[in-house]
Structures are given as structure tokens and as C-alpha cells.
Amino acid sequence: MRFDFKHTGNRELPLILGQLEILPKHWWNELDASQADSAQRLDQLASLTVQADGKLLIKALDGTQTLPVDSIRRNYEQLAAGNPELPAAEQLKALDESSLELSFPRQPAQAVLDSLAQLKLLPAKRNFAETSLEAPLGSGPYHISKIAPGSSIRFERNPDWWARDLPVARGLYNFARIDMDYYRDSSVALEAFKAGQFDVNLEYSAKDWTTGYDSPALRAGKFVQQAIPNHNPVGMQGYVFNTRRPIFQDRRVREAIALLFDFEWASKQLFHNAYKRTHSYFENSEMAARGLPDSEELKLLEPLRGKVPPEVFTTEFKPPVSDASGIIREQSRRAYQLLTEAGYRIEDDKMIDAQGKQLAFEFLNYQANLERVILPFKRNLAELGIDLQIRRVDTSQFINRLRSRDFDMTSAIWPQSSSPGNEQLDFWHSSSADNPGSSNLIGLRDPAIDQLVEGLIRADSRQALINHARALDRVLLWGHYVVPNYYVDTWRVAYWKRFGRPAVTPLYDYGLMTWWEERPVGAAEPSPTAPAEEVR
């Protein structure tokens, strides 16, 4: 089997580290134990005890064996210090040779479990500070057998994988060999796929998905395009206001500018109606605020009344909706009203403040394909006398300017998980506002938001977590800190018709590792040494 890895990234990148085992297997729908035979005191977690069955020695590719306890302790010591999203264990205590206790007295249970689920069991003698093309020694179902730098990576299944008979591995890892090809250009990758040079393509472009796959092979039914439901939270993608800039410190100005982004026109003319409008910082999840706050949310919000926008209590947040004609008179009238209230006026076709200075700002961008979306936004702003300049820079300049907060507006994404936690400090909390490496691009320093973020992290139940997330969502939305963009709630997967798939797809993945190759009855298993083009 073969698939591509484009410059946009690929869902199967974790396969590269998939040769390394994980403590509890962070699977698509739930956490399943892989190395851990038992984990105690998960409710109201203050400490976690991981106990390894004596039969569950992890066997690396070279045949060496180690107890999970050794790997867990070593990995936490190596990784926790440099990873702010990994809860720091205050104590790692080996109870015996097969049991380890990790103490987290200040951390909520869910955050600890989710972080543990992402912990790889790394080889003890590997120095990861050194650059090397030598694959680390792994203990997973696949190992890297060949690397062509900048071109491809080959994975081969380990027939002696120590965990192949565990229930958690049933029905998985059905391919004897997987080749991952790299393409710098997505157009080249698409043409290669249509020519049969690789088997599975995960598409990110709405335009290519709608028009790019038409070919004799598609019309002959040799490959298919399938939109598989994706239930992952998508978070917020939007045009972020840098509120460190004086012109963006007035909420009315931010709201007025946001009104002039015409999503419906862009969806029809640019996106082939392939996207949905983002309504939440926790979009596509149960954490997204909908309707008015319920009684449990109000318990969190009432103490903040007068400190958060009044609409939080009275109105459901909804981005403006146009008729997709490109004419947005109603939104423009409302934007003009807001700007007038904020002290602006029109003079000589320019929106000016009390000192006669035009409302003008710069959009920092590094993506060429984003400009076709920004330009109609620029035109709408210009019709109201607002000057938007698009400044395109290279990637390194873009990163440096973000770190130094040298921008007015830019495009940003705040991803979310099904169990938000410590990363919210990095996104919205005052403590991250002056950190050049943080994701607090907005420049938020709001005690009310700080209180909701801290409460979310301390939430002691799933429902409490949801309530805090929804309350936080409402306050962020009504702050008009971003111009909400759009999202897609499916995996757009094209694949050649040589695979079988389970009838039920995982909620949070398209499930490539659950697929299998379908061959004619009586056909022999391909040789692991067959040329790459024979096993794709």
C-alpha cells in the first residue's frame, strides 16, 4: 500500500512514530490499555498506578525487552520538562519492578489521561538531540525499513510484534508494507494519484475535490472519492485581531470589520459550497455553545455579569448571513453604525477617527492561495472607507513577526481536542499574553476569561468541563476577537478500488489502519521484497 504526504500534512504522519508504542493506546473513539494491565484511581485522579502484567514485556525490533514501567518513568523525565501541555508528575515512584505510581495532585483526571495517551515509549539509548536519518529502535507493529530523504519512507510490518494478539490490536495493521511518498506540490501529487502511482489520497482542497479528480480512471470506477464523517472538534479558524494595536481595542470596531467578511459569497464562488461557517471556538463538538446559556452555564457566568459582553446572557452568537450575491448592504449599514458609535466618520470616502486618521490596517500573510479569499474582504472594507493592505512575506518572516507580535491581523487556527485542558492557558490566559511563543495572538488579558479558563482546567467531571467550555466559548465569541472562517466536517478520501473497509468507521479518524487489501481468490500474498510499484 502507498499513500502520499503533501506539504499540507497528512493524517497518517503518526505512523512514523507508530513503530513506538504508547502507554494507553489513544485510539479513535476512546482510550484503551495497551501496555498498562491496570490503572487505578481514575475518578478524581490524584495519582495513577500503572501495573504491567509480567507477560507484557515490550519487545523491541532487535529482540531486547523492557518493562513498561522503565519506559514510562524515563519518558516522563525526558519529556515533561519541555512540554507545557504534558502534566508534570510531582512524583514518579516505582512500587515494584512492574508497577509505577505517578502523582498529579494539582491536575484534573481527564487532562492526565489524555496526556498519558500521547506518551511514546522511546528507546533508552537514543539521543534525540542529535540529527540523524537512522530510524529509532521501535517496538510497534511497523518498522522503518527504507528512507529516501525528501522522497519516501517505507514501513514493513513486524511479524513478531509482541502485541499482535492483544485484543486492542484485533483487525488492525493489515498491510505487510506501506510506502509514504512525499510531494512538495499538491497538484503534482493529485496527478500522480490519478495515474495510479499511489493508492490513497487525503484531499484538503475543496476545489480539487470538486473538479480535480475527473479522469478516465474515475469514470471507469477504478478509484472512488468518499467523504467520511469526521467528528473531531475543529476549533476556531479565523482572521485574528491583534488587540495590542490601539485601533482594535474597541469591540465595536472589531465587530464592524467582522461584519464585512462575506462567507456565503466566498463559499459559492471560491469553495464550491464545500465548507460550513464556523460558529464556535469549539466547533464540531459538544463543547460548542448553542442557544442561550443553560442553568449550569449561568452559575459560571452570573458572577461575571458586567465584566463580559451583555449579549452573552441574552443572544445566541451567529455570524452574519448574506444572500451570496456579493452585495452586503445590511451588514455594511450595521458596520457603519458601530463605527459611528466608536467615534469614526466618513470624510472624502475615508473612514476617519476624531483626529482625522483613516481606519487602516495590514493583513500579514504567507499563503498565496489565501489571497483570493482576502481580496473580496478587502473590497468590502474599502467600500466603507477602510484601508486593508495585504502584506505577503515568506514563512520565516511570518513566524518571526508572529512571535514579536508585529502584525495587525492574520489568519490563525486554534485547534481543540475532545477534552480541552492546559492548552487553553496558552490560547486565552493573561499569563501567555507576553510570551512570544504562545498562541495568545489576540493579546487577551481579561480576568473574566482567565477565571473561565482556570475553571475549565480544574473541572472534575465531563459535564463540568463541557459547561466551562461553553461559557468560555460565549465570552470569546461576543468579544469579537476573530473573524470566524469556515471548516469541513468530513475526511475527503480518494482511493483505488483494491481495499476492503469495515462497515463502521471510527468517529475520529477515517480508519486507514483498519483497511485491508482485497485480492482475487487464490492470489498469493505479495512478497515483502517486491518492488514498491507492485505493493502500493
Secondary structure topology:
Elements: E1 2-6, E2 24-26, E3 31-33, E4 38-40, E5 47-51, E6 58-59, E7 65-66, H1 68-79, E8 91-96, E9 99-103, H2 109-117, E10 142-148, E11 152-157, E12 177-183, H3 186-194, E13 200-203, H4 206-212, H5 216-219, E14 223-229, E15 236-241, H6 251-259, H7 263-269, E16 276-277, H8 295-301, H9 311-314, H10 329-341, E17 345-347, E18 350-352, E19 360-365, H11 371-383, E20 387-392, H12 395-403, E21 409-414, H13 423-428, H14 447-458, H15 462-478, E22 482-484, E23 486-487, E24 490-496, E25 499-500, E26 516-517
Parallel strand pairs: 1-12, 19-20, 19-21
Antiparallel strand pairs: 2-3, 4-5, 5-9, 6-7, 8-9, 10-11, 11-12, 13-24, 14-24, 15-21, 15-22, 16-23, 17-18, 25-26
Helix pairs in contact: 6-10, 8-15, 14-15
Main features:
536 residues, alpha+beta, D-Maltodextrin-Binding Protein, domain 2, Dipeptide-binding Protein, domain 3, 5-stranded mixed beta sheet, 4-stranded mixed beta sheet, 15 helices, 26% helix, 21% strand
